[in-house]
Amino acid sequence: MKIKIAGHYTTKIGELWDQGLEDLLAEAVHGSLKNAQLAAEQIEAVFVASKAPGEFNHQLHLNALVSQMFVHYPPAIRVEGACTAGGLALVAAEQALAAKRYKTVMVIGAEKMTDQNALKTTEILSLAADQNQEAGSSFPGLYALLAQAHMQKYGTTREQLSAVAVKNHHQAMKNPQAHFHREFTLEQVSQSSLVADPLRLLDCSTISDGASAVILSTDSSGVEKWRQKPQILGYGHAQDSLSLAGRESLTALKATQKAGKQAYQQAKVKPKEIQIAEVHDCFTIAEIMAIEDLGWFEKGEGGEATLAGKTAEDGQVAVNLSGGLKAFGHPIGTTGIKQVAFLAEQLEQGNYELALAHNVGGSGATAVVHVLAKN
Amino acid sequence: MKIKIAGHYTTKIGELWDQGLEDLLAEAVHGSLKNAQLAAEQIEAVFVASKAPGEFNHQLHLNALVSQMFVHYPPAIRVEGACTAGGLALVAAEQALAAKRYKTVMVIGAEKMTDQNALKTTEILSLAADQNQEAGSSFPGLYALLAQAHMQKYGTTREQLSAVAVKNHHQAMKNPQAHFHREFTLEQVSQSSLVADPLRLLDCSTISDGASAVILSTDSSGVEKWRQKPQILGYGHAQDSLSLAGRESLTALKATQKAGKQAYQQAKVKPKEIQIAEVHDCFTIAEIMAIEDLGWFEKGEGGEATLAGKTAEDGQVAVNLSGGLKAFGHPIGTTGIKQVAFLAEQLEQGNYELALAHNVGGSGATAVVHVLAKN
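^ inputs. structure came back:
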């Protein structure tokens, strides 16, 4: 049974002062239906991803909120797993399709983060860390520890971290939906304000508003040109210790490695066959670890590979061509879904055959990896 | 493919001042493993239900928190859908099993509500209503409207509402895990403090702490005595308008009716074949509507049937033998799971052949119904 991406839509990502959570969700519902050329009634179930709509927008029960945007109130489930909410909602949807309960479903993610001030937002984000063992830590602080460990073990440099940000901001220039359309030099990144040593402001991803939806279908009769649509070849979903204290290693995310292996195995694809990937660059160090953990570069060589342009559009593998979490943006629950939506569009345009999406929760306790094919 | 309830465990429900959210989850993990006679490593995936752990306990990313209670970090997903979180987590787990991704999974729900004061708790609960159309309403207020409508249309009486509370408090006397072990007379319920006319204090379910887990398995080789374990025969999941303003009727929950029909159809069971049921009595009026909407009594006859004892232990159908949300308790994300855990135990004891669990979110926007068989 093939699961196809029948349609996709991502709103503009940014500080969207004139749109509320519900507006963003509605735009993604209707945008993805239009892209798939489907009527609302053809959606049999909905999987909604959002990290903290209660904390950000005083609205829980988001499954019902989205269901009522359809005429026929399809059954809907909300999934949360910190920044992996989007990836996990895709997984739940894929399992419902594989169970043959439904043939065509929508997976939609949204986060409206700018309803709260920066301090409150940082506090809300930190709820994804272990409140018993890591209370008081912010995510820049936790990822700074990972960066320190990587630099000490492998000699990863300040310049190599900056190269991730420079590349992703450069690539976002061609993505009209991206939060930021502004390029930076290595020096500008390296000299931006210090947040948590060694991470600086321009090492960090964004606080953004936005929504994204994909329509998944196993119904070759229901979707026009179904055979030509991009396909989900395989996925992996793995966990690791919630707190850094319980990790075997601070220089790799074991959950990413395990989820990657599962996805490659199901897809029957080797890591180096992947041509384009969206990886979870919540901080620059996270992209360096990801391109190693997903098998494209040896451990410790991710920084050098990035600086050498091996992950640029014309490199060995095009990583975060969208601009990534860094410059496309990181409206939390949206991220795992907009990665797949972006890759589906790239595959449809015909320049790539095999793609990978990589979504991480917290400091690496949850990881979801998807391998996609052109059709 | 049969889905069996291989094990189940529910903590004491109550104001558990000496147990935190993590303690409750750990107790349910280990309790259900012991009940199923399974080792932790045999659990291939975990589905976690909780309504508002971010708001109540400053902890999101609960899937990772639970996964790390196992040696092998099984993949885990958190599901939310207001008070239907538990029912929806069961649905997601059933879909993963039917997809043959896993053979044995744990579904666990927890809510630790007493970390916040009563005012804050009421505010957190109200996040499950429509914040655009119903902001400022509390759930007692919304269910009071439904009660008013039912009384006006069908002549349902104050005494009939009280009969639900009297029955459920009586039945909880035999349930050692129940929050309340105290009986009330019709008069005591009818004269308890007014909360939202006509609902009084003793019409309302509890604010409780607690956790519950069930282990579902399709693996006849992996679970001892698998063939004798209770079976999930069918489930339904339906939605309706989030706000009352969008409902076709205020005297029935259409989502319950639709979910019930789906569950009966999949189970190939007629409503009146059900012998024992746990229904979502968040308020007394909710039980009266449920026993009508699920097909056991005609619309408008639920109150009279209750007062006549037709839903008591020796009645036509034993409703909320556990004490229900009213007296067993309503730790939100736990509820849909503890209903199934309780029914599994009843089926194992051999007094009943067919059971039904009914879980509702908000004022009726989400409903999940399960039909269970003795084996």
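The CA atoms of residues 194 and 200 of chain B lie 4 Å apart. The first helix of chain B runs from residue 21 to 36.
thumbs up if we can close this ticket
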